[in-house]
């Protein structure tokens, strides 16, 4: 108990031999030391007499030992540093960068630990390691990194980007992993890089659950192929039901609504009644014109974009109708 209490007291700088202040001073001195690693390692050895539980001391010494070719000593010090600082992903990140020119296997082990510790910013750190490997021309590191990422689901796209066709198709075919990742932007970007438009479209159309969830992707592919009517009809079928005002609750007759619009063109409730009346009478051109005039007004509700799409579809202006539906979906998000 006495040794334990003294050790904790020492870490807090409460012990007069010479305490935490001395450790911090030594670390600053090491950082500014211009002599060789041997002299700086001697300063660190002195610091260990005052702060044996400071991970920074072991980390600095490990770096100098790597530089001096003392791999066993460096591994031990890195291990001690990790033990004393269990949370920060920056520690194994820097360790990986130090090992990379000398021991790819140890660099990869440090990257694995970095990923395990990362709660956020993982991709940024992973890319930092990749960029350094490219700069050094470390081909082994570049080949092994995607395989390492494979063990961490949130980095799947790094593995899939370089996976073989068989591996990629196997992952897509398993569906569980692919389904959970399909909501991410990288998923469809990678699919377009790996597969043709026709393949992706047929793949989606043959899987109803996927089509219901990703109808917008399928509609975009149809539109790119010039099949704009199919794109519109697919989007209309699977998109969430449009939220429209209840005509019964507006308590406005078309004649009253017409008078209100004359007095106030920005009366959205009255305009809505008139557009719906024109659609029911199959006056498609007039409904389209009114919808477009309303949409020019500031604060126009998004559902006028939906009504515009309906009128355009009846006029068989499929490309514009599909664009109007897309705009409506964007506005209601």
Given helix and strand content, the structural type is mainly alpha
**CATH homologous superfamily grouping of the largest domain:** Tetratricopeptide repeat domain
Mean pLDDT, nearest integer?
Answer: 83
- Radius of gyration, Cα only, in angstroms? 32 Å
Low-pLDDT runs: 1-19
CATH architecture of the largest domain: Alpha Horseshoe
Biggest sheet: strands, sense, closure? none
Describe it for me?
The protein is mainly alpha-helical. The protein folds into three domains: 160 residues, Alpha Horseshoe (Serine Threonine Protein Phosphatase 5, Tetratricopeptide repeat), CATH 1.25.40.10; 76 residues, no CATH class; 86 residues, Tetratricopeptide repeat domain (Serine Threonine Protein Phosphatase 5, Tetratricopeptide repeat), CATH 1.25.40. It is 74% helix and 0% strand. The chain contains 23 helices and no strands. The longest helix is centred in the middle third of the chain and has 15 residues.
Explain the layout of strands and helices.
Elements: H1 2-11, H2 20-32, H3 37-48, H4 55-68, H5 71-84, H6 90-99, H7 104-117, H8 122-136, H9 139-149, H10 156-162, H11 165-174, H12 176-181, H13 185-194, H14 197-205, H15 208-213, H16 215-224, H17 228-238, H18 247-250, H19 254-263, H20 268-280, H21 284-295, H22 303-314, H23 318-332
Summarize this structure briefly.
By secondary structure, the chain is an all-alpha fold. The chain folds into three domains: 2-161, Tetratricopeptide repeat domain (Serine Threonine Protein Phosphatase 5, Tetratricopeptide repeat); 163-238, no CATH class; 247-332, Serine Threonine Protein Phosphatase 5, Tetratricopeptide repeat.
């Amino acid at each position: 108990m006495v040794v334990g209490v003294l050790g904790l007291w020492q870490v807090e700088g409460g012990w007069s031999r010479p305490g935490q202040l001395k450790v911090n001073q030594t670390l600053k001195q090491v950082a500014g030391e211009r002599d060789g690693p041997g002299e700086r390692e001697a300063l660190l050895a002195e610091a260990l007499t005052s702060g044996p539980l400071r991970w920074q001391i072991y980390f600095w010494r490990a770096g100098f030992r790597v530089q001096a070719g003392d791999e066993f000593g460096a591994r031990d010090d890195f291990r001690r540093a990790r033990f004393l600082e269990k949370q920060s992903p920056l520690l194994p990140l820097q360790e990986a960068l130090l090992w990379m020119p000398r021991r790819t296997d140890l660099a990869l082990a440090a990257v694995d630990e970095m990923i395990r510790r990362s709660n956020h910013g993982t991709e940024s750190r992973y890319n930092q390691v990749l960029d350094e490997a490219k700069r050094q021309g470390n081909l082994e590191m570049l080949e092994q990194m995607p395989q390492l990422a494979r063990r961490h689901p949130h980095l799947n796209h790094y593995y899939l980007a370089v996976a073989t066709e068989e591996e990629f198709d196997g992952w897509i075919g398993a569906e569980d992993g692919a389904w959970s990742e399909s909501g991410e932007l990288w998923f469809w970007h990678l699919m377009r890089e790996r597969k043709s438009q026709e393949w992706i479209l047929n793949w989606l159309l043959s899987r109803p659950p996927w089509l219901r969830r990703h109808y917008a992707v399928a509609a975009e592919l149809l539109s790119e192929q010039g099949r704009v009517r199919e794109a519109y009809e697919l989007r209309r079928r699977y998109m969430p039901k449009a939220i429209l005002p209840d005509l019964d609750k507006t308590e406005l007759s078309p004649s009253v609504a017409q008078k209100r619009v004359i007095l106030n063109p920005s009366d959205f409730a009255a305009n809505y009644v008139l557009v719906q009346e024109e659609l029911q009478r199959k006056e498609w051109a007039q409904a389209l014109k009114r919808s477009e005039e309303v949409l020019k007004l500031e604060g126009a509700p998004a559902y006028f974009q939906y009504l515009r799409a309906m009128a355009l579809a009846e006029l068989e202006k499929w490309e514009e109708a599909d664009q109007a539906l897309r705009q409506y979906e964007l506005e209601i998000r």
